[in-house]
Design brief:
The chain has helices at 21-40, 50-60, 66-87, 99-114, 125-128, 139-154, 160-191, 197-207, 210-221, 238-260, 262-267, 273-281, 285-302, 304-308, 315-332, 342-347. It is 66% helix and 0% strand. It has a single domain, classed as Farnesyl Diphosphate Synthase (Orthogonal Bundle). The radius of gyration is 19 Å and the shape is globular. It is an all-alpha fold.
Length: 349
């Protein structure tokens, strides 16, 4: 992994093995129309990130079946829509929710996912009564309906019977982490307090979409473990090992994302690893970035250890986790995912 953000050696595609690049780009372009059609049913999901997510998931799981890559590409797009509502970004969705309504929306999303898509917003009258308008056009309701559809589709994959509960767990962890970030942003704006770097990363590795996407991939492409797995502490069972893979990946991508989104998040007064280092240690942006780049490298190297302990039946999934880390961290050193259009994606070939 190249550790200089502006080095010529780092390009958008540096994180994809050269032998796979043509296949990845072709796969990303081929799934684009299906992903585009999927999210078009829910206007709250902004299309500007579609090309970036198609590329990211094609780079993550290039040799799995296209239907898996499509579903996996949709998940971060839904999470971005949740982010937009939680951030209450002016002009993005032309809607502002109260903090109480955001909390209710996050709880509702978790309940839908934990039900496997077998419940809808209508099943939670106590939660939705907080919203002044209840109709299908409401952004929060579109997100709820999109999650219901997604979960029902993921449940159709045979592996979901074994691994869906891990996806539901990490979905809940991710949205609880978003809730924490909402409170941090409020505190920063109101009384200028912010979390420590360690507190921020412990939470941020869960609020980034990577563990959610990897756990959904597990529920779609994971294979049963036939033999008894012998693990040593700190891994008490297979799930703790899987968690370690996903959260290590989340740590690297969270930090890389912070570099790409630093200026935007500073203006929005959102906690960011670079900003926290600058405020707590009196560093310049360049000095903080150098520390974060070293941390990214540490996590990229660290992930190989838990992946190597996975049973052979999960080798393909472990390879996807590794690919996701390397691709996303290289990409974020050059630009944000929302800066990529379909035309730009086609021009990368």
């Amino acid at each position: 992994m190249e550790t200089s953000k502006n080095s010529d050696a780092v390009s958008e595609l540096s994180g994809i093995p050269p032998v796979d690049r043509a296949h990845v780009l072709q796969t990303a372009l081929s799934i684009y129309p299906e992903v585009e059609n999927w999210i078009a049913q829910f206007p709250v999901i902004l299309p500007r990130r579609t090309a970036g997510m198609c590329l990211a998931l094609a780079a993550t799981a290039p040799y799995t079946q296209p239907s898996v890559i499509v579903e996996a590409s949709v998940i971060p797009l839904i999470i971005f829509a949740v982010d937009d509502l939680v951030d209450m970004t002016e002009g993005v969705l032309s809607v502002t929710l109260t903090v109480e309504q955001i909390e209710a929306m996050l709880t509702l999303c978790v309940k839908i996912v934990k039900s496997g898509g077998n419940s809808t917003y209508r099943d939670y009258p106590d939660l939705i009564k907080i919203f002044p308008t209840i109709n299908e056009s409401q952004p929060w309701m579109q997100i709820a309906n999109a999650l219901t559809k997604l979960c029902l589709e993921v449940q159709k994959f045979p592996a979901a019977e074994i691994y869906y509960s891990i996806f539901a767990k990490h979905f809940e962890l991710g949205l609880e982490a978003q809730r924490t970030e909402l409170h941090w942003t409020q505190a920063f704006k109101e009384i200028e307090t912010y979390p420590t770097y360690e507190e921020y990363l412990q939470n941020g590795r869960k609020s980034i979409a990577a563990p959610l996407v990897l756990s959904a991939l597990l529920a779609m492409m994971g294979q049963p473990v036939d033999s008894e797995l012998s693990l040593k502490p700190p891994y008490v069972n297979l799930e703790t090992l899987i968690d370690e893979v996903m959260l290590t990946c989340g740590s690297s991508i969270r930090l890389a994302n912070d570099i790409a989104s630093f200026e935007r998040e500073r203006q929005a007064q959102k906690p960011n690893s670079l900003l926290i280092l600058m405020l707590s240690q009196g560093l310049s942006e360049k000095e903080a970035e150098a520390i974060v780049l070293k941390e990214i490298d540490k996590y990229l190297q660290k992930i190989d250890a838990p992946i190597s302990l996975l049973p052979s039946s999960l080798n393909a999934w472990g390879d996807s986790a590794r690919r996701m880390c390397w691709f996303s961290c290289a990409w974020y050193q050059t630009r944000d995912f929302q800066d990529l259009t379909k035309q730009m994606l086609a021009a990368l070939r």
